[in-house]
Structures are given as structure tokens and as C-alpha cells.
Amino acid sequence: MLRLRQVTKTYPDGPGTITALGAVDLDIAKGCFVAVMGPSGSGKTTLALIAAGVDTPTSGDVWLDDFDVAHASAAKRAVLRRRRVGVVFQSGELDPLLTAAENVALPLRLDGMSAARAAEQARTALHRCGVDALARRFPAEMSGGQRQRVAVARAIVGNRELIVADEPTASVDTATARAIVELLAGLAGDGLSVLMTTHDSRLAGFADEVVILRDGTRVGDATAARADDGSIGAK
Length: 235
Known about the structure:
This protein is an alpha/beta fold. About 30% of the residues lie in helices and about 30% in strands. It is built from seven helices and eleven strands. The strands form two sheets. The chain has a seven-stranded mixed β-sheet, with helices on both faces. Helix 3 runs parallel beside helix 5 and helix 4 packs across helix 5. It is globular, with a radius of gyration of 17 Å. It starts with a strand and ends with a strand. The C terminus is likely disordered.
């Protein structure tokens, strides 16, 4: 389980500070899909980066089971992301010089796994995301939606437990966005924990829980009931 307790992130601003997150609590259980909604500047990306161990909070605690994410060294957090936490960014951020299979295998190779075993696990992850036919293609030979699916495959390869997706549908069309979120929901159904940030209530409607941020503060959750178009309402 991922647990955030009183997580605060501030940045210096001249003589004062800017608060990006203010005392946020969040739990994500195994197999749970949580969406974080809010307008630009609400702190969604900051929360995602802290949850994934890319960044650290100014104060507060972040735990992934018994691993103290908030106070771990940068090196230990890098190992965490290679082995247990996968991250999907807005634009996928695939290496343009590597094929899809090589991109997906990269975290395993960086962690010391043999090329043959990493390639096998990469094929499994690509198949799970429905893009195994793209294994030999380079990013420039893929559509935006295909690149994002490959990025998701890279995030789940190996024995990852938590997927953090920061606005993973920002650069794709509506139909592709829905397909990507359905993929994330399916991964949660298979037992992975998923945290996704989004500004689109229709996409957030696929999640088990929706958290609403405003000005860095958790201001509420969303109702479980969904409208016919998949949108959700705030409590």
C-alpha cells in the first residue's frame, strides 16, 4: 500500500515560499485505481512525482509498504523506480534511439538483468498492453497513443507494484485517451496499484476513487455515481 501523510511541498520565492502541496493525506491499496483531479497549478504533478519517489516532500511521510520513500536517498529511490514503481509521463519520454522492446527492457537492464531475460519480460509487458506488434519499431514510427502504451508497458515491466501516471492522456485524442485509461483500469484489476492525475472528469470516472486538489490542498473526493457520459460529481 502507498501511504502519504501530511505531505507538504514548498519552494522558495524571494523572501517567502510557495506551497505546492499542503498537508495532503492519501492511501492507495493494492489493486486500487485512484485518480487525482484539479486545475492547472493545483499540485497534481507535484503529488505524482512525490508518490513515485522522483521528488521528496518538504515535510510529511511517504511509505510504500515498509519502504520510507520520503527519507530515502536519491540512489535508493532510483532503485525503487526500477523495481517497484513505474512512472508514465505526459509525453511518454521514450528514448528515440531504442526500439519499443528496448525501451521497455531498459529499467531491467539498468538494474543488472541479463539481456535475454529482460527481452522476454519486455515482450510480456508489451503483450499485456496490446502493443507487442510494435516491439521492433522506434518511437518516431509510432502514433502518440502507441508511444503512450509502450510507456505504460515500460512502467509495468518486471515486478512493479505501483504505477504513477501524470496526465498520461494529455497529448492524445479522445478515443485513444479512453483506451489508455481503460488499460490502466485493467492493470489495477490485475492487482497493480495505480495513481493517475487528470483534468478530465470523464477519464477520472474509470477510477475506484477520485481525489480533488485545489491550490495544493485536498478539498474533497468525488461521488461514486457516474453520469451517462462517464463524468463524475464532487462531494
